[in-house]
Amino acid sequence: MRSHWKDLLIFGLLSLSASSYAQQVDVNSLHYSQVAKQTRMVFDVSASPKHRVFVQNNPAQLVIEIKNAKLGQTLIQPSASHPLFANIHVLEKTKDNLRLAVDLKEPITAKNFSLSSNNKNEHKLIIDLTSKNAPVANKIIANKDSVQTAKKEMPVLPVEPPKTLANKAERAFSGLQKVAQQLTSKQEKIVIAIDAGHGGNDSGAHGTHGTEEKQVVFAIAKKLAKLINSQPDMKAVMVRKGDYYVGLRKRMQLARAAHANLFISIHADAFQDTTVKGSSVYVLSRSGASSEAALWLAKSENASDLIGGVSLEDKEDVLASVLLDLSQSATEQASADIAKSVLKNCSAVGETHKDAVQHAGFMVLKSPDIPSILVETAFISNPSEEENLLNADYQTKMAGAIFGGVRNYFTPSSSPTADTKVAAL
Q1: Which domain does 150 fall in, by range?
Q2: Do 224 and 353 sit in the same domain of this protein?
Q3: What is the CATH number of the domain that holds 134?
Q4: What is the pTM of this model?
Q5: What is d(CA 38, CA 33) in angstroms, rounded to the nearest whole number?
Q6: Closest CA to 62 of 108, 102, 98
Q7: How many distinct structural domains can be found in the chain?
Q8: Over the stretch 267-322, which tens digit does the pLDDT of each residue have?
Q9: Nearest residue to 140 via CA among 36, 225, 258
Q10: How far is CA 386 from CA 54, 203, 271, 273, 276, in A?
Q11: Which one, of 209, 217, 203, lies nearest residue 389 by Cα?
Q12: C-alpha closest to that of 66 among 130, 125, 127
């Protein structure tokens, strides 16, 4: 009997050991690319890492903690001229954790995520570092210059990965060129996704006389859809077709499923000061709102409107993040151009709140592959503009202004471009 229990104990210990070994993470290499005062660090690891990344002071360090991990090779230090950090070294190695420290030269912000490959032994831990002193306009965009930077940078861990970030980025550029050729050779209908804000239990903002935002913006959205569908080369897709709430992520999923070339979100503005008035057109800002009203509005709208994201299930590892950067750059430019065209037309209907396109961190505008604008048709908090929003003639004029701006951008002879169809890759 005692011998039997001893056998069970040995078997249990062996099983536990095998389980722990199976979960071990090998840190096989680290490579990074740099654009101005932004750096992307990519760790090649053998399994999906359980990790945490944080910044500590005294000394100023970025700490990377990976559970049940071991370091494959000796760390090679970055060049002395690197703008963000000086040294990368092992801070602590225990039986359960590997802690790496990056000695910082200046304050940074860090974002991290992991990617899994179809190959169970190939995973990525990606950390994006941005200097807090960097200009707002600076951002990591994968372009030909950054691809060359990725080639020239010395890898921190000297191994020979089978596929490099530079090679993947080059293939991405080649793929973009092919898609552009394919799309320009076809005459496709221009698909416009129209998102009437809020709906169902989410009534949106309220006017001084009780008018609900969800009702008036839906009326304008329907009129806009009718105008778009009257064009032989255009097609409207309503995100919601009645008074019901569409889930946050579902809105962008519906637009993507329809292969939309443009996403228009229609809202009615609101502010504490009931004398504020005028229409506005917004595009995404990575630095926040460009006016006090925009800042206040972004906080309220983000709580109830949608979050966009692109499906990257068929993209490989780091190539996915490179494609996102490429797509985002093209999408932002298209969004800005369309927004300017729409704002110009809105100024002919009535007063505009600002003479320029506004920028705010609306979640609804963050899809990287579909140009997106948000139109605030009027201030529902202003009594006179509340009356306008209830007026069918005003609704028709506002729908016509939005349509005219879109029509001016997508000329009758135009077809969807590669910029608006990067998701086809």
Answers
A1: 23-159
A2: yes
A3: 2.60.40.3500
A4: 0.51
A5: 8
A6: 102
A7: 2
A8: 998 888 899 999 999 887 654 334 434 444 454 444 333 223 334 444 444 444 44
A9: 36
A10: 48, 15, 13, 14, 12
A11: 217
A12: 125
Task: Say if residue 209 is in the same domain as residue 338.
Answer: yes
Q: How much is the pLDDT for 362?
A: 63
Q: What are the φ/ψ torsions at residue 374 (nearest 5 degrees)?
A: -125, 125
The confidence score (pLDDT) of residue 424 equals 31
CATH number of domain containing 268: 3.40.630.40
**Average pLDDT value over all residues in the chain:** 72
Quickly count helices (H) and strands (E) in the chain.
9, 15
| Nearest residue to 112 via CA among 102, 101, 126, 99 | 126
Same domain as 108, residue 53: yes
Cis peptide bond N-terminal to 59, omega within 30: yes
How many alpha carbons lie under 13 Å from residue 251 in its C-beta half-sphere?
29
The answer to whether the Cα torsion of 245, 248, 251, 254 is positive or negative is negative
- Would you state the structure tokens that stand for residue 44, as one six-digit string? 């090649």
Q: Distance between CA 219 and CA 395 in Å, rounded?
A: 7
Structure tokens at 152: 């020239």
End-of-domain residue from the set 99, 127, 159:
159
